[in-house]
Specification:
It is a single chain. The chain has helices at 22-41, 55-58, 90-99, 143-159, 174-183, 192-203, 205-217, 236-246, 253-263, 268-286, 360-369, 394-406, 420-429, 440-445, 453-460, 466-472, 484-494; strands at residues 45-46, 52-54, 74-76, 82-85, 108-117, 129-138, 167-173, 220-222, 228-230, 294-296, 310-321, 327-338, 353-359, 384-386, 411-413, 434-437, 447-452, 476-480. The chain is α+β, with helices and mostly antiparallel strands and 497 residues long. The chain has two domains: 22-51 and 86-184 and 235-369, Bira Bifunctional Protein, Domain 2 (BirA Bifunctional Protein, domain 2); 384-494, Anticodon-binding domain (Rossmann fold), CATH 3.40.50. The strands form four sheets. Strands 1-5-6-13-12-11-7-10 form an eight-stranded mixed sheet. It has a five-stranded mixed sheet with strand order 15-14-16-17-18. Strand 14 (384-386), helix 12 (394-406) and strand 15 form a beta-alpha-beta unit. Helix 9 runs antiparallel to helix 10.
Length: 497
Amino acid sequence: MTDAKPTLVKAKAPRGFVDRGADELRAVSAMLDAIREAYELFGFEAVETPAVEYTEALGKFLPDQDRPNAGVFSFQDDDEQWLSLRYDLTAPLARYFAENFESLPKPYRSYRSGFVFRNEKPGPGRFRQFMQFDADTVGSASPAADAELCMMAADTLEKLGVARGDYLLKINNRKILDGVLEVIGLGGEAEAARRLVVLRAIDKLDRLGPRGVRDLLGAGRKDESGDFTKGAQLSEQAIETVIAFTEARRGNNAQTLEALAALVAASPRGLEGVEELRAMDALAKAGDYNESRLLIDPSVVRGLEYYTGPVFEAELTFTAKDDKGQPIRFGSIGGGGRYDGLVGRFRAENAPATGFSIGVSRLFAALKAIDSPLVAAQPHRGPVVVLVMDRDHLAHYQTLVARLRQAGLRAELYLGGAGMKAQMKYADKRHSPCVIIQGSNEREKGEVQIKDLIDGAQAAAAIASNEEWKAARPAQISVSEDEMVSAVQDILARHNL
């Protein structure tokens, strides 16, 4: 009787989640450092909140509100309380501000970055785990706080290598949309669900176009897969009013504001939103951020329910090409807005707040497309590898590694069980600049062989046979153990490493 073969687990990342290698992590780190510098220039300071929050603290701002795990990943703790992975960085900040209210300065200006999680159907460019980088001002009701975030977002994109003219900060105000909804009879708490359907329909304008939005405002829409999304069931006249709102942009911000004011003339709340945009536009122009950088665009509404005033999106306007040479547009890579009600969920005394969030992965892909030096593939070199030629003298090889590390040089001892040829291949895969070789003869003489793998690869390209290789031993030198560190330093300096 033979033993049953064990069942192997399939090595596969879950749908909507991706692995990232060292090169990408290094480039993303450089991008995050640049964003951090831009935010700190505006006076924002770092804070970090956990990836898990009580579900009730996050609130149910995503679809299917009747289920605690709809839209978010949730589980029950041993005390039967529901916990959820955060779906953005804003709701956790509101909880943090309320919990630490007495000790924090007001207004409180902070930034934070980290992964967020969405329990949604994954697709091309749509992940269940992705990184955001946020900045928020909590405790100021002034439109200046909103305008400042937009100006900071513009400066951040330029710092990252996006040229002026290749991006826009598009600005709108949810109060104006509220005014439009009042005009078509969707005011009041009883119509909250339909208002949310309208809101999410408009937010899909860039992706679906006016026809798709019209369908979602009416009876509903069937997508390419055959899935049907129920619409807001608006009348044809109400649909035309909403579409007119999304198309109210004119030649400049002042003209757009006049068109919006006329559209919501019967709504005090709508007119309040127009005045807030007017103040933001004036503040931006005072800082030399005109329509070529900050543009009032009524089609911007943002999909999350908690926004209460100005909303904004950072859009990349340039066209790049994908791997197949096809033109691609990246569109929105970040956004945010005013959320004056979130802190009030935790405290009797509410605090106004506004924030901006960058979608790190999408922005990273865009920066790669324009060959931004910030995320360009940098020459990556691994550690110096000390080969093991005689396993009975492992401790001596470890001494050589220690000398290199004590001099501040990245170094490792080969820990596998292969011979020299395989060890050399290992060093190549590690992108090592050089290897240390010491057999018994070298050890008796107190010497080491140092092979420059960079020069060696270049020299090897010109060698036609094994005999030439053995005769030339390209880029390999012999030095005493005492000279080993300085010889390695010389090699690294020669290659600007």
